[in-house]
Write a structure and sequence with these properties.
Layout: H1 2-30, E1 56-59, E2 65-69, E3 78-85, E4 90-97, E5 101-105, E6 111-119, E7 132-137, E8 144-146, H2 152-158, E9 168-172, E10 177-180, E11 183-185, E12 191-194, E13 203-206, E14 211-214, E15 218-221, E16 224-226, E17 235-237, E18 255-264, E19 267-271, E20 276-277, E21 283-291, E22 294-297, E23 309-313, E24 317-324, E25 327-330, E26 339-343, E27 357-362, E28 365-367, E29 376-377, E30 387-392, E31 395-397, H3 403-407, E32 417-421, E33 424-428, E34 433-434, H4 466-471
Parallel strand pairs: 8-9, 9-12, 10-13, 11-14, 12-15, 13-16, 14-17, 15-18, 16-19, 17-20, 18-21, 19-22, 20-23, 21-24, 22-25, 23-26, 24-27, 25-28, 26-29, 27-30, 28-31, 30-32, 31-33
Antiparallel strand pairs: 1-2, 2-5, 3-4, 3-6, 6-7, 33-34
Length: 483
Amino acid sequence: MKKNHFSLRGKSYALMAFAAGMMLFASCAQDGFDEESFDIGVYNTQLEAPSTDDIQVTASADGSKQTISWPVVYGAGGYHAILTNTSEGKVVVDSVYDGTSFAVDRIEDCNYELSLEVLGNEERNNTGCEPVVKTFSTFATALATIPSGTDLYEYFQNNAMPNDGSELVYDLEEGGQYTVSGILDFGNHQIQLRCTNQNNRPTITYGSTGTIRTSAPLKIKNINFDCSASGDEAIGLSETPDESIKGVTGSGDYYNIMGTLHIVNCNFNGVNAQFIYDNNKKYCIETCIIENTVVKLTSTSESGISGNSVIYFKSGFINTLTIKNSTFWQASTSSDAKYFVQYNNSGRSTRAGYTMNYVNFMNSTFYNIAASGQWANYSGFSGQKSSTFLMTDCIFVDCASDIARRFIGGSYSSNPTYTFANNTYLKNAATGTFDSEENYDKSGTAIKSDPQFADPTNGDFTVNGSEQLSRRTGDPRWLPAAE
């Protein structure tokens, strides 16, 4: 009986101890600790940082977030993490963590650097260690890196591109030099041509017939172009369209490029003809984005651009055109475009399988373009409920007359959607003449003062005008850094 009594008492004590342990565990859980936070008796120790291989970066299913995690270091007093987006020169995170992970927004096509410092624990007499540094990127994996010195026309003639329908990514070397000696036509291959370092861009130099063309989505990123020897467009659409894309939206007989022509972080120097040209084929590009790019036009009479435009779709149109944080300027004194943008007048979203079409200009600078012509010609968009026009924070100097009127298709109607804000329409800087935009840009926000560019004839559009500075208008590269 005593034995049984002792056994029951022992069991009671064990249950009480277990219950107390569970209460302690629950209390710790409620305080935000987990089992990995316990020091498990680590004292008087020089702590070691996790290896870079043990630091994991995991993207969310939709690619919008990334989680950075590392193994627990027992006995640590916490972790000091500094995450820098080195592509943009921005510190994303600078924080001390008790846990072993954190999540941040994931920006596509950027390089990152993580500095992770394991902190000491004075109560346990544990000493921290020097930060470990891990670099990683959000760039898509490249199919190949093309060596500097390569003629890209010859390279793609001699190296077959896979036909699996996926995007094919080709890297150019940082600071490399490349040529395009002929018409480099990617055809129906979806290509991304890039450098992963926007601060040390390679240069592609066109020959006399050099140009890049496509009939599929195309992304060009972090590249400088010298087009001065070429008489062709800087970027064009294939003269022989891919018949399989004709009418793929289920409406109309356009060659539908389903996706985006994306030009980002590029400089184009010496564009003698059109910047983008459809080569008189009935294309509809779903989306075209020109972002953080500078285009220096040197239009020649031989190119025939005086009768057409910088972005010229003779037979087709772009369903959504967006230009943001970019600069276009005309350096030629012998010739100029008739328009900045021109589409075939039949071009309209509802005729190509879409419900809406858009023209968006944001925080961009335009100088000396179509000064004797008109800004835009796409009458198929004019007055339509399917049309949306947005122009905000742009600067136009010595460009066409009636920019706001031509931007919305030539006439004001209650059908389209219009958004205007903080634009400068300085028709003639020498005389201080401004456009009369009030009947088209009805925002009441137009700036009627000179932006006072530093040296526009030589391509320096640094803003000195007080109103443009205070509202931070035009291409941001010409503005002082935001405080």
